[in-house]
Amino acid sequence: MPTKQDHLAxxxxxxxxxVLTLHRxxxxxxxxxxLLDALHARLDELHAREDCHVLTxxxxxxxxxxxxxxxxxxxxxxxxxxxxxxxxxxSSLASLTLKIRDxxxxxxxxxxxxxxxxxxxxxxxxxxxxxxxxxxxxxxEVDLGVCPAVVAPWLVAKVGPGRARAMLLRGxxxxxxxxxxxxxxxxxxxDRAALDTTTDALVTRLAAGGPNALAMTKRxxxxxxxxxxxxSPDLLARAARLSADLFASPDAQxxxxxxxx
Amino acid sequence: MIHAALEGPVLVVTLRRPEKRNALxxxxxxxLARLCEHLRDGAHPESDRVRAVLLRGEGPMFCSGFDxxxxxxxxxxxxxxxFLSELSRTIxxxxxxxxxxxxxxxxxxxxxxxALLGGxxxxxxxxxxxxxxxxxxxxxxxAVSAPFLALHVGLGxxxxxxxxxxxxxxxxxxxxxxAHELCPSPDDADERARTIAHELxxxxxxxxxxxxxxxxxxxxxxxxxxxxASLSLVGRDEERRMLEAxxxxxx
Lengths: 261, 251
Fold this sequence. Notes:
The complex is a heterodimer. Helices cover about 50% and strands about 15% of the residues of chain A. Chain A contains eleven helices and nine strands. By secondary structure, chain B is an alpha/beta fold. Helices cover about 45% and strands about 15% of the residues of chain B. In chain B, the strands form two sheets. In chain B, strands 1-2-3-4-6-9 form a six-stranded mixed β-sheet, with helices on both faces. In chain B, helix 1 packs parallel to helix 2 (about 80-95) and helix 2 (about 80-95) packs antiparallel against helix 9. The interface between A and B is medium-sized, with 33 and 36 residues.
């Protein structure tokens, strides 16, 4: 039975392909509690789809995903923020990243526009990331007084510890072209107009692969994430706790309020 | 197809099957594995004089991978299993041997040919070289390369390269760390790789051996899981079906 949040994340099937779209364009697809729930439900559906072996993850509208929904993590002025509710959201994001990585299918993040913070995290959890030269990507968490704890292990896996350190501590955002140069993006389309055709070519290549060969290769790579970087449910649970503590801190609340204008 | 000759202190190992873009025959890869293992064990006739190894290819391309003709009429996948095992042995022996290894990936290094780069300390390529692992489209998992590739370029680029059967050019290979030196043309790459091999050979031997040994120790890897993953798909329906389709299309 459809639930109220179903429209927030839509799934289209054209086996062996599937497309999962974040559908909250008015909020630049920011991760609200409802959107996170919808994504979990869609991923559970995808785990059961053995006829699909390539998933494209993308965003409706001009943004890919603006990150955590700041309205949801801000307490009302003068009140203390609800740290348990913030923690629940970050735990949900943390388990979502594991759920995406555990899919048997190859996941392509089609970064159609801004991918910020947790949104950029989703882009680097995917097996492959494609964007266009003018998109905006990055991790401005430290600028806002918070800590990109949940996405950090995935970024380390994606670009290596040295580059991850520089990106996370310097904050800010970069263009799609810079993200490609720094290894956050694997395939770069020249401009926004070319993104669809470039993505189609990539997805067609992937869809032509042997499903068992792709799944087996991915499983081994996931094992290497575990043995090489120690990515585990426990690590991500601790990340969610750390991140929630920072989100609830007075300094972060002040900065987040200012950022929201 | 494997020709090895000492040029001063550099053992130049040349893949010589240019008309087939140096596609590895069963015999060729077996010989290469044996040669690399002999070098590792100090059992090669020239072992005492070798200070660096240069692996290169004759003709337009370094190596286009396994010669799949060897796998025809082999429903049990004996030939493919042999290829994969010898490939893993070759890369491991290059890594574990005493002397530094330079590979010239001029023109391209594809599938098993690209996997060989996992055994190199320095990879030279030209900007237009084509590199990658287009094997999932024939039902093969490139997992055998994963531990070595992940060590060289990191887990992210390794994931992208092993899952996407598309090829990247030398410039992108250089950007992700798969190639360490980039040259304008294949001929320049060949010359540059030779120069680098001689440079490495001229450095103090004990220091080079100790440094390579130490680098192995600080970056331990287990090659066996990757090989097992690749072997586990050989002879299965998907691989058989996709190989048949590949041969049908190339006929």
